[in-house]
Structures are given as structure tokens and as C-alpha cells.
Amino acid sequence: MSSGKLRDLIKNVRACKTAAEERAVVQKESAVIRASIREDEADYRHRNVAKLLYIHLLGYPTSWGQMECLKLISSNSYSDKRIGYLGLMILMDETQEVLTLVTNHMKNDLNNPNQFIGGLALCALGNISSSGIARDLAPDVEKLLSHSNPYLRKKAALAAIRILRKCPDLMENFVPRIRALLNERNHGVLLTGITLMHELCETDPHNIEYFRRLVPTLVRILKNLVMSGYAPEYDVGGITDPFLQVRILRLLRVLGKEDTESSDAMNDILAQVATNTDHARNVGNAILYECVNTIMSIEAEGGLRVLAINVLGRFLQNKDNNIRYVALNTLSKVVTADLEAVQRHRNTIVDCLKDPDVSIRKRALDLIYALVNESNIKILAHELVNFLQTASPEFRSELTAKLCAVTEKYAPNKRWQVDTILRVMSIAGTYVPEETAANLIALVASHSDVQSYAVQKMYVSLQTDFSQNILAQVSAWCIGEFGDMLVSPNNPVPDAEPLKVSEHEVIDILEKIMKFPGSNVVTKQYIISALMKLTTRFTQSLPRLKEIINTHRASIEVEVQQRANEFTKLFNWPNVIPKLFEKIPVTDANSSEPIKTPAVATRQGTSIIDWESESVTPGPAKQTSGQAVATSPAPDLLEQLFGASPTPTPSTAPTTPLVSTGLDLNSLLLGPVATTSSPVIGFTNPPSIAPTPILSTSSTSSNNTNFIGYNKNGLVAQCELIRNPQQPNMFALNVAFSNSTSSVISGFEMKAAVPKQGYIKMQVAPPSGNILPANNGGKVTQAIKLLNSLPGEKPLALKIKLDYQQNGNPVSDISDLSFPNGV
């Protein structure tokens, strides 16, 4: 029983209008092929295998016809062998046990006097050979590398690559034969020989030293290709054999890396390639791209590196977006090698920010970020701010973050930094990172020479537009702290027009922001706190300030309502208020890093009055990232407010201002937050979350206990619990988070909550950062103070909520911190 021709099957399949019709045609044809195989119709075997190949490409199973390929390979006919080997490579892979049956046939075909049959065997060997077949046939391939026929030598070199990948221990048999391949006149043999050399270098770097002696030969071949005239058999787009040129350049890149002698030998030819190659066509650009990569990888001369970067500069002016993307991507990699040379193309790079292709814009932004330094920060920041005004929403977040980062890092002076950040805030609004606002507040707080200027600029910005919440928050904080400088005529700003502002005008604009529908709860918290601070700065407007604060005691926002009630309560102790809301002390003005003050880290879900951070008294202090600020003694405010004596009594022990940080319990479904003047957040019905078991617990001393409190998804919290010897119910908890995964964790944030019964009080210091490098490359630390009012009766309990991003995906997890038993 014979079947029809292959073209008839293709015609019938293409005529099908539905998938069901196609399946019916394939099933019918498969039945015919099976019948032909059963009847052993040798005359139609090649036709049946050809149909099986087509059916396999359509996605239907064809494993039942694999033996037909072996029968065709054993045939003496070249046409049968051609279809058989083709079916072998497509219908099978190296894991098929049937493949072992073809080893003898392949060995015989490798020694066949017909070069095309030998080529078929070499092609199949290079595509699907297993380690066993490769080891068995390696001697035959080795002999063919020295065959007189260049066609077989070319095929043998490609097959040798497959053998080396499967059996690297056979490498020493092929290395000595490479030199002979480089003396070939046939470009096909040269191309495959150089490819084999490159594979040997990648498989074993020790071969690089051996092949470096062949650098002059490679340079000679490349020079002949560059300087030769028109060769029609190898011409592609007017360039002689660009494929061979690219392969030589890639091999020279490997041989010249970290070797001065080899690099000197190839400097001249690389300069000729970069200068003489036509860049009007893509084929020339491909060679130039490889040439640039080679120059930047070897020990090249300075002038040659400049030439390579200039080639990339020409790429940036190309109309093809693919070439421009390649240029930006390559410049980003080599910018550290020669910054000055890349700076010459700065204007062209900046123009790429206006490209409609988002990938071009992102690469240009990354490159500009790498180009910024102290000498060009003003120019590039101006360009980035202008681009920010027209940037698409999905692009603004990354642009704003990088603009703020370079502004803070390379600002020529503090005034320029304030002006630039305020302008970014007015344009980008919610896209401004939280740490930028905190850094700006810390900058103003720690530099007395910029405070008057900053508060005036912020006031003017609010007069123009107060719809941006982040700008309103920073301005409100500064006006609350330095409002007296704003209205005082004795605080003129040098080189600036005098600003005449009255106390009522300042209060008016704060009240407008408070009533503005677009103001969020956090902004209103900043405003109400600023109004309370101004009661110690604006003595003439004290009645009005009290009235405004009293009005918000009935605010629908719980946080604002709580602040207003607590502030109103403070008016009963007028002697306390001046010390409580005294100006924040000026820290080290020469510090190279902005100081993040805990007082600005106010968040929704946090108890509003952070007593220690709001009541800092003047005195020297210095804070580093993730550490508490040591301040001078502060009054025991809780005793003054709720004790018998209304007179403040200074404490002899220094206080550590810590921000009370808690969970947003609504998001945790833990019920409403109880209103309390204590910076504690509680929960009544904790969710049924299985606590993380303690992996290791070891007591380092009678007061210190080390344990792992959290271990999930590669995120580990190593905890150290320190008991206060004088007050056994007080604990210091130091938590160090590490990331053992292979992906960086960004935006890391921990929130904590204690039981609502109120027997535990908590204070949380700001974290040391928000990025956890991969593979335990760094840590984020968090310090927590705990007070257990029922020691011995109830143990320490703490629930944490972790929020972070990994591989672009947001992750959130809630868990109990696993304290050891008995604490």
C-alpha cells in the first residue's frame, strides 16, 4: 500500500479550515504511512520519512516512525541517506536509545569516498551525538581534520566542537591540529577552524596561552580581508567575508585580554578595521561593533579606545533604533574605561531621551546617570528636569529616582540642591522617593546656613502650587521648624530678594493645604504638627493657632484627630511646650552624607506623637544610617502630663529618639486601632498565622540571646535580644535581615505590632537601608526597644509585616517573630 506525494499532503493540510479537519487529514495520512511501514515498502520509505518530518513540524507525534530513518541511513543511495540523516536530526535527540544503533553506520559513512555522504554523517554527529557516540567517533573526526578535501575539513571542525562539549577530556587530541587549519585558503575552513579555537579557549582557559602565539597569523588573515579588493565569492554588502572578520575579532578579544604583548600586536589592525569599514550598511556596523568590543576588552592604547568610543558615537546618530540601542548599551559598559571620551558625546546621549522608543530612553537614562559628575551636574540635571516635564508616566518613577540621587550626590552647593529637589517635587509629585524628602529635611536641619533660604523657597513654592503632597509635607516640616526665620526681617538671605511675610499669611497657606481636597492624611499630619510647632515661634498668633488645632479634634481622620487632641492636652502645661517643640539641634554641617532624622519618618498607622523625637533638646548629636541619635537629657513627659507634678523634671540619662513604627492593622484584618497616647499599636484577635520555628538559639551571656526569628523565601532575620540588667523587663532587640536568594530585594520595609492588651510597649528605630543584596551580600538592620510590663506572666510577642520587591514583583508577608521560650 503506497501513499501519495509530500506535496499532496501539504496541499491537503493547507486546505483545512479548522483544527479538526487538519487532525483528520494527519490521522488518515499517518494510518497510510503505518500500513506502508508494515508492508516494508522500501521504494516509498524516503517519501514516508519526508511526510513524517512534515507531520512532526505540525506538532503531531511521530516517534513510531523513527526506525525508518535508520533503514534509510543503511541504504547505499545518497538520496535515501540524505532523508534518513535529516529525519535522524529532527525526529530524535541525544537521549534516544535508538540512536546507539546508528553509530556503526555513521562510522562507515565518515570513511565513505563520497564527500557528500561523509558530510551528512559529520553534520548529524555535530547536531545530535551523545557523549558515547562522540567518544567512539572522535578518532575518525580527528583524521578528517587533515583530509585533503576542504569540504570535509570544514564539516569535521564543526563536529569537533560538539565532541569537545560532550567530552572535554578529548581536547588535547584536537589542539595540535588547529595551526594547520589557519593556513587554509578556503574561507569556510578558516571560519570553522577559528570557531573551534574559540571553543577550545572557552572550554579550558589554559589553551589561551597556547593560542596567543597564533595572534600574528590571525592579524595577517584579518588584514588581508580588510585590505583585499572585491571578491565576488565572499562579498556581502561590499565587504569581504564579514562572518570571518567577526569571528577573528571575537577570538582576538579573548587572546588579547590582560596580555600587553598580544594586544600590541593587534592594535594596528584594529585601528584599520575601525577606520576603513563602511558604516553605511548593517554588515559594516556588525564588524564595527565587534571591533569596538575587542578594543575595549584588550590592553589597547588610549587613542584606540577613543577611536572605539567615537565609533559608538556615530552609531548614536544612526536612524536605526537597533543600532542606537546597541551603542547606548555598549557605552554603558565601557563608560568606566574612558569617561572623558564618552563625555564628548553627552549631547547626543541626552537627545536620546526624546526618542519615542522607551527602550532607547531607558538606556540613555542609565548612561546619563553614569556620566554625571561634579563638573557637569548642573547641565545634566537641567536637561533631566526639562525632560521630566514631558516624560510618560511609566518612565517618571525611574527618572525621578535617579535625578534625585545624582542631585544629592554631586550637588555643587546646598542652595542649588534645595532648588533642584524642590523643582523635581513640584513636577514629579508622588513619583519622588520617600528617602529624598527625608534627605532634604535632614539637609536643611543640619545646615544652619541654608535654613532661612530653604524655608523661603518652600513658602514661595507653596504659594505657586500646593497640590503635590510630598512638596507640601517637606515645606510644612520646614515652616514648622523655621517659621520664625520666614517672618523675621532679621534673617535676610544673601543674594536674594527680601521676602516680606506675616505670621497670618503663613498660617493662611497652611490652613489652605489642610482644607485642600487633594491633601492626604500624611500631609495633614505634617500640617497639624507644624501648626503646633509654630505656637512656640508665632507668639502673636497663638490664639489663632490654638483655635485651628482645637477645630481638628473632631477630624474624620483618626490620625489627625489624635494629634489635635494630644496637642490640645499639652496646652494645659505651657511650661512644657517650649522645651517639647524646641528647634532640632544643628548637627555636623560638614558631614558628607545627609542625616536622616527619625522625626521625619512619620507614616500612616504610626502613633502620632513620637515623644522622644519631638522633644529633642539642643545639644551635639550625630547620626549615621540605621543608628539612633544620642541627645541631651529630655524631660520625662509622661510624668509631666499624667503625674502629680506639672513641673518638668530633667532626666539624668540620655534618651534615644526612636520612631514608633506599627502595622496598618486594617490591612492585617486585626480590627480597629485603639486611640492611646502611648506609642503602641495593639491587636486583639491575631490572625491564624503559623509562627516560624526557631532554627537556632544560643545564649551568649546571661543578658544576651541570639536566635533566628524569621526564615522564609530566602529572607532570614538574625535577632539579638539584650536584657537590661538594671530593668529586667526592658529589652533591646537588634534584627539583621539577610537575603540568601540570587535576586536583589529592593524597597524592603518592616512594620511591627504588639498585642493590644497593652502589656508590651515598643519603640522602633529607622532601618539601616531598604536594599538587600543577593547571596547574603549585605544586611539591613533594625533596632527595637521592648518593655514587658508583665514579666513572668506573659512572654514577649511581636508580629511583623515585611514588604519588598523581588524580580519586579511586590511581596508581602505577615508572621510572628519567633522569640525563644522564657523571655
End-to-end Cα distance: 86 Å
User: What are the low-pLDDT stretches, counting only 5+ consecutive residues below 50?
Assistant: 588-700
DSSP helix count?
A: 35
According to CATH, the homologous superfamily of the largest domain is Leucine-rich Repeat Variant
Quaternary structure of the protein: single chain
Strand pairing plus helix content: what structural class? alpha+beta
Tell me, rounded to a whole number, the average pLDDT. Answer: 81
Q: What's the gyration radius in Å?
A: 38 Å
Q: Within the CATH hierarchy, at the fold level, what is the topology of the largest domain?
A: Leucine-rich Repeat Variant
What spatial order of strands do you see in the largest sheet? 3-4-5-6-9-8
User: How can the largest sheet be summarized?
Assistant: 6 strands, antiparallel
**What's the domain count?**
4
What percentage of amino acids are in beta strands? 5-15%
Determine and state the CATH class of the largest domain. Mainly Alpha
Describe it.
By secondary structure, this protein is α+β, with helices and mostly antiparallel strands. It has four domains: 1-99; 301-412, Leucine-rich Repeat Variant, CATH 1.25.10; 413-642, Leucine-rich Repeat Variant, CATH 1.25.10.10; 665-816, Gamma-adaptin ear (GAE) domain (Immunoglobulin-like, Sandwich), CATH 2.60.40. The protein has 35 helices and eleven strands. The strands form three sheets. Strands 3-4-5-6-9-8 form a six-stranded antiparallel β-sheet, with no helix packed on it. Strands 7-10-11 form a three-stranded antiparallel β-sheet, with no helix packed on it. A hairpin with a 2-residue loop joins strand 4 and strand 5 (715-723). Helix 3 runs parallel beside helix 5, helix 8 packs antiparallel against helix 9 and helix 13 runs antiparallel to helix 14.
